[in-house]
């Protein structure tokens, strides 16, 4: 528990240390009068430590003049009109003196006669200093600070006690239990003192330690007979019955910190703890009731088995707490329902409570009279955006192969979690668990609220519309027959007189976007679709900023589902969006950019028409030119241009050069700002680099080879290499995505630094890098694969190191990003395709895990590349893959359809080759281990291969299609030419080996050939295999003819 005033002052102190550059500050002296800007800092007369003092730290005493100087400094610090820059400079000067922290702790602990604010400021400054310098302080100062803090645990002033607790917690994190045994002796004495100040001070310190490093109290410590938590736990549980609410609150807060780590002390006391929670459920203190609810929520999240015997009673208590008069208690209780469903507890345990729970949730979804959102929602578009309206913006770096994430369905302008939102989320979760069975309870309540048409009941109507949106996913089956009527009812609400009803209707309609699009072919479906589009477009031009935001977000969701269905409406959509573009303020302008970018993603090249380009490109270019390189409003515009460039494709070429050059300029200026902000004229912000890199990727994807001339005339290659090595993970992530995109369209411009790019990308795949930044590793993996198919054997220097990193990913995919596992499988295939001779000898280390990963990849050209690699590697080392044949069969059967005829033949030839190699018995034994569906698909594949010719891709040889010759060496004196039997193509096929004259003969038993033909001359069985080419070489050597 940190007091609000303490937080506020701490923030100011952190501002002093972080926000103001040291070099920008003038030198000042410090006194009670305004310092001269030309004076230099006067040294503070700190006490010098004599030998005697060094031997006895508690003898240290401050000098009065130094004390006055520091008090004056802190006085100025807490003044609202102070010059923080000068204070910071003076503080920096004082920290050079070894006794400065002694002065601070003296003021905190013994500053009688000084204001509590000054003493508290001294303590907070001390806390920050200890984090940075305690370990390097002289032992005498360390001991002095420790000894001065302990007597203050029970200070009479609550603010001082709280600050002391904060300092103690920070110091404890540095020295741990063994470094401060006296602390626990002091805390124990305070807890046993029966003095409220001492007990509360000790509990506050313990709570902060438990909050920061709970595990540190559950360790064995030399000098202590018990672990600290074992000593404190019984006392904490006793405080559940204290007559003082502050002690009950602190004790409960301490123990709650241990639910996740669950030390033996708590586990052994669980019955007493649970009984205490039941007893405190009706506590008169709302803070205590809130912590009780928090405990139940944590227990069901991480220790559900503990709650199972008590689940019915706990659920009843939480249902009552969900109706608590204190909103914070009700909010904490409301979290229980989502937690219950998330841990897959038996739903039947909750079903009997639904008739009472659902009305409670619906009631809590109604706006409270004092909800700040009500005031915010009344602001029309003429109100300028405030700084707090502009949420911090974080650009998502490009991730190759990532799935589209879920949209944020937050319907409130201010992103604050509250009871209304939590109740809606709870209803959403319940609908997904119980489905249509909640409708008989819920729908009458919704209908009842919607039927209240008087103005005083608008909040209830709004909550009803919200609840319809909340159950859109979970109850879709039961709602489906009625959805046309529901949508028809919602459309007029887009024009309701109350702005919050208009905004929530936008959101609710967006939740049914998929159904709305699916219903286009139904009677009146297209008419409804058109009405929704026009209704949302009207709301995009609403005068209320809250409605504008909701309408833009809803329209973007509808765009994603509608795709080409929007094409007939493109003109009117663009006109409305550009009209909004001229009237929106900064916050909603960002959302409008997203809607425009989503439109481009949805309709693609359909946007590439002059009549459309003339509507939206001139305003965007004008804004593009107006915004400075340091303006953060550029972020959303860069993202928008990325989608537009990808959609227009070559059609974007007329705008490409200035956009490309601006991106290069942004990257250059930010890299300069990183080392010299003054020269760059701006502070460093990596978001500019990330957005610029992603737009360049969009240009590469859209323009294709058309970007080559721009890359050739720029410094992009060198800038990109720098970005690939950047310390910021999201910069590396976007840089590696661009590396992969450039590899596809203009790899020639990467060649001068190709090995550097390869080494940097390969480095991102080592296990620690994967753990630290999985998305960076994902893009590095993909980029290496793209480079491999373009540069061929030039990638060989890094093949082994890359494969050695990919194999652990494939062998242990649990918990890893799905995209990383898929890209690892694809890249391994591409490396095998271009360098089969390097990879094939190691296949037994990864073939089974690799095949499992290949089974999970959807059919596309990247999967084709991977299977070309599989075929090439098996051809290079067929015996090495025999042990994994069942896995290879499963991977081959994972295709729905191999569209490439060449790959299709190649896969089938592998299977037929193994069938011939193993013989009927061996093949049947392998097939018997497979699922019937897999066998069926394999059989179909084998049949389709007959009569088809293989078409080589990228000039590579199909090793399994080589004509083979059995070489019979029946007579030791005979030459191979005397006994050869040429086989018909496709009758007997086998693996290719590196064959030379004579010594190219390979033992048959090592190849697993089950039934080779007999020698036509002597009837004996053959001893070896040769390719036709090998036989010709042998014939040539012996100057023999057919």
UniProtKB/TrEMBL annotation:
Keyword terms: Cytoplasm, Nucleus, Protein transport, Repeat, Transport
UniProt cross-references to PROSITE patterns, sorted A to Z: IMPORTIN_B_NT (PS50166)
One GO CC term on file: nucleoplasm
Subcellular localization(s) per the UniProt record: Cytoplasm; Nucleus, Nucleoplasm
Example GO molecular function: small GTPase binding
A GO BP entry: protein import into nucleus
Similarity comment text for this entry: Belongs to the importin beta family. Importin beta-2 subfamily.
Function: Functions in nuclear protein import as nuclear transport receptor. Serves as receptor for nuclear localization signals (NLS) in cargo substrates. Is thought to mediate docking of the importin/substrate complex to the nuclear pore complex (NPC) through binding to nucleoporin and the complex is subsequently translocated through the pore by an energy requiring, Ran-dependent mechanism. At the nucleoplasmic side of the NPC, Ran binds to the importin, the importin/substrate complex dissociates and importin is re-exported from the nucleus to the cytoplasm where GTP hydrolysis releases Ran.
Record's protein name: Transportin-1
